[in-house]
Here is the input.
Amino acid sequence: MAETILVVDDDLDILELLKMNLEPEGYNVRTASDGESAVQSACTDPPDLILLDVMMPHKNGFQVIEELKDIEETKNVPVILVTARGQTEDKVRGLDTGADDYITKPFDLREVTARVEAVLGRTRPIKYINPLMRAMGEGFSEKGLEQLAGHLQAAAAIQKKLLPEQAPNIDGFNIATLLQSSTSVSGDFYDFIPLSETQIGIVLGDVKGSGIPAALLMVMIRTALRLLCHEEEAPALILKRINDLVVRDTEADLFATMIYGILDTTSSTFTYSNGGHCYPFHWTQNRDITVLKTGGMLIGAFEEATFTTGTCHLAPGDILAFYTDGITETGTGDSTTSEGSQSTSTSVKSDDEHEDAILTDMFYGGNRLAACLSKNASLSAAALCEAVVEDLARFSGSTQTHDDRALIVIKRDI
Amino acid sequence: MNFETTIETGNISTLHVEGKILGNATDAFRKEMELQLQTGRDKLVVDLTSVPLIDSSALGAIVTTLKCCQQSGGKLVLLNPQKAVQEVLEVTQLATVIEIYDTEEAARAAFM
Here is the structure.
């Protein structure tokens, strides 16, 4: 959601100038031309930041800040003061009063944008925690906030540690992984579990939902899997038991999709089950891609879920690829998450193919991923992961990602 | 995304959604279904005829609502999901636990 900036100045030309400068940067801009209406506007609907002129008739900038700091809804709204050049006293007084930064007139518009972005960058994390602070009352102090931020960092660190740093070296196979996280705590995960001299358990999953609850679910699933894979053999049974566990212990709207399988290096087989996750690809030497569809329901939503085990034989040079939907749902210009409120005016029903074409153009999709793997099948597993990353960047026009992306490539040596 | 809800005979609520259910839009979708449940309407038809795409949180909202409906003896059914949505329902195998109908008549008949 676009952030809202309240610009306050008694000079209407400056208001217009700042508005014209900030709106193209993606901010909503509201304006007020005196101190009184600024306070009113800020209280009625607190903005994300206030750009506040000091020298105004009736009520000046300092008075506005003092009032805002006394009001619960506005006391945490960051303020950038706009002062006249050389008024050092103003700057000191402004910062003392609680302003977050200041800009001197006449200003360079690029400086305004940069300072706005810097202050928002600093205060953004706090803003999301504010409603929580209010809900928890006085006891939740700044110290508590620091603690919470610390816990978040710790959670992210624990999670990173749980993910293997590199893919295992296995005789006869070449394995590589890719993980790109959009936030500090990730929903995508993978793991490699040595089961015997010749067998290794491989899992790739995606916990739906976000933040700490999703991260906790991921840790729970990973731990359960690590224990269960030594007790049970059939991947379908293991997924069934994890499903039972998660259904019992979590809220309904928290669930995961995952693939678990055992790579056997003597028989060159991958025996797997799939809990509602994107179908893996099997590329064979005769240049076919087979989609592996065996499996079952997504994990953690329904008690009555059933799972099936499938086996896939890997000939020399064959490739197996597992991925999460963050890859296939990468959008052009990565617009996957920014559009939500538009409605389509075209009639979808009468124009199926047209709609298909739109979707194909909008998202990277399984077909592009399959094509990219086929085209680069002669490369090593690690180089294949790189090729996918490059192809995604070309498609989306960006190296940034809005969703977590994970990919495992397993290639049997020739 | 836009939607409108009609209450029909037999206290069946039909939620007609238009547009992609993604990102922020998912919240409104989830809240609308919650609202139906809170007002005691646990017979829901979600009309996906004009929904080209949904994301995983929309899927989560459907799953949560479905389970709530089932707990109170009601049910949630889907109407006419389009290709990309149908694929998601198949991959996650939600298609095996959610009733899916092609026509409004059939969907309504599911509650009789």
Observations:
- Helices of chain B lie at 25-38, 56-71, 83-91, 104-109.
- DSSP finds four helices and five strands in chain B.
- The longest strand of chain B covers residues 43-50.
- Chain B has one domain: 2-109.
